[in-house]
User: Which sequence fits this backbone?
């Protein structure tokens, strides 16, 4: 399968959760290795768990050296505290992350990508960006940090 096919699947996963994720955007994530899906997920009802968390849990050890396809930049910090998606991707040892569109929220805003790159993970952004942005037409990114406990 191609990068586009995997991203198309991630977009379909996100589209199926629109309107169910509270204030969080509906994000889709597919983790692929050797041309096959080893994990996938979409933002959970009410906004938790995040798509990357679900996909990494499903992939388990197969995530090491794999490619993650994400419809929106992985978070760099969590509103509820805890481990961010970019930290989880680094810890899992993915080799590459393909991101459809950025996230201007203060919980990401380029920091998620920077964390991945600083860890030596190859990142590509913009694949199927128009399709992903259409998912987020009503998404209003957080402009200030509000840690929820």
Assistant:
């Amino acid at each position: 399968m191609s990068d586009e096919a995997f991203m198309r699947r991630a977009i379909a996963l996100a589209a199926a959760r629109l309107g169910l994720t509270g204030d969080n955007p509906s994000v889709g994530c597919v983790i692929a290795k050797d041309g096959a899906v080893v994990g996938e997920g979409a933002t959970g009802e009410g906004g938790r768990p995040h798509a990357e968390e679900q996909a990494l849990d499903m992939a388990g050890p197969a995530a090491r050296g794999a490619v993650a396809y994400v419809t929106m930049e992985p978070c760099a910090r969590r509103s509820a505290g805890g481990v961010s998606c970019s930290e989880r991707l680094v810890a899992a040892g993915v080799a590459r992350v393909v991101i459809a569109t950025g996230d201007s929220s203060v919980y990401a805003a380029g920091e998620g990508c920077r964390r991945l790159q600083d860890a030596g993970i190859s990142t590509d952004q913009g694949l199927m960006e128009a399709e992903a942005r259409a998912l987020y037409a009503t998404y209003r990114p957080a402009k200030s940090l509000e840690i929820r406990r």
Helices lie at 3-16, 51-59, 85-92, 111-118, 129-135. Residues 3-16 form the longest helix (14 residues). The radius of gyration is 14 Å. The mean pLDDT is 93.
